[in-house]
Fold this sequence. Notes:
By secondary structure, the protein is of the alpha/beta class. The chain has two domains: 7-177, HUPs (Rossmann fold, 3-Layer(aba) Sandwich), CATH 3.40.50; 205-341, Nucleoside Triphosphate Pyrophosphohydrolase (Alpha-Beta Complex), CATH 3.90.79.10. Helices cover 30% and strands 23% of the residues. It is built from ten helices and twelve strands. The strands form two sheets. Strands 6, 7, 8, 9, 10, 11 and 12 form a seven-stranded mixed sheet that branches. A five-stranded parallel sheet has the order 3-2-1-4-5, with helices on both faces. β7 and β8 (232-233) form a beta hairpin. One of its GO terms (molecular function) is nucleotidyltransferase activity. This is NUDIX domain-containing protein. It holds the Pfam family CTP_transf_like. InterPro entries: Cyt_trans-like (IPR004821), NUDIX_hydrolase-like_dom_sf (IPR015797), NUDIX_hydrolase_dom (IPR000086), Rossmann-like_a/b/a_fold (IPR014729). Residues 195-338 form the Nudix hydrolase domain.
Amino acid sequence: MMTNFRYDYAIFIGRFQPFHQGHAFVCQRALSQAKKLIILVGSSGNARSLRNPFTFEERQQIINDSLPPELAKRVIIQPLLDYKYNDKAWTKAVSQQIKTRTNPTDHVALVGHNKDESTYYLALFPEWGFLEVGNLKDIHATDLRNRYFACENPAHFHHPAISATTQQWLQQFSLTDYYQSLQSTYHAIQAFKSEWQQTPYPVIFTTVDALVTYQGQALLIRRRNHPGKGLYALPGGFLDGDETLINGALRELFEETQITLNKKTLLARLKNHAVFDDPNRSVRGRTITYCYHFDLSDLEAIPSVCANDDAAETHWLPITTLKRDQFFEDHYFIIQFLLARTHTAEPTT
Length: 349
């Protein structure tokens, strides 16, 4: 008997870190109303982190293996890049993804539920319908990740909210160096948070960063410690209680790069600054950072630098070669945002 579908395509956007039974429930509900389901896997292409531990390809495999074959053949899974601090670019990317898979006459609907602020995008596409579904048994991927990385014997990890194939995949992944690094980060973060457990209110951290550019190159450090050990980052750190924001950014710049310029020279070349306050930008907790852009392109020679303090390495790197999967947290997007403000940005890739 022919099934009558309300929509030609349903669109399901999420990070699926990892894909669980709640996600599978949404897929089943969507496919009861649509001929096909397009799953856009968000935060694809980012460096591994506690919030995004698995690559697009790994999540694609987990999703395909978790769904019954008769449903999986009606599912299209595509990567979706982040465009932090640029909703317009993100919305355009989603629209372009869907246009490549659908026809203008197709009936399209977004599928989801009002779980939390991460579903804000449901209001960004008024031209599409909306399939409201619930959150099966109130399952959250964040809780699953925490249990997974806290597990003393992850090679035998199991949880009722994930499929047998996903459990097997996670058990195998726990044998990799990637898992060992992520688990080390998890324990470092737990130790950090334990220092603030007795405060009578949630702690909000203030950090400062410096973006220093010279004729198409950016000054970056490679992080010495967890979280983000081995990843590129902007020189920066926590603001001291007795300093202004700009002075804190300069102090961190001098400490981590030992740049051979004085404060006056840098301040004369301050081009821009901005605040970055995405509540989920850091695994350390609520962290608001202020970043200052110094452009040294008018200098006759590129300043010398040397890694120090929390920086394992310090490099001048061509801006056009920077990739999002090389960076700690949102630092890649901070660079793109500030460069766009000063009209020197290369296209974001």
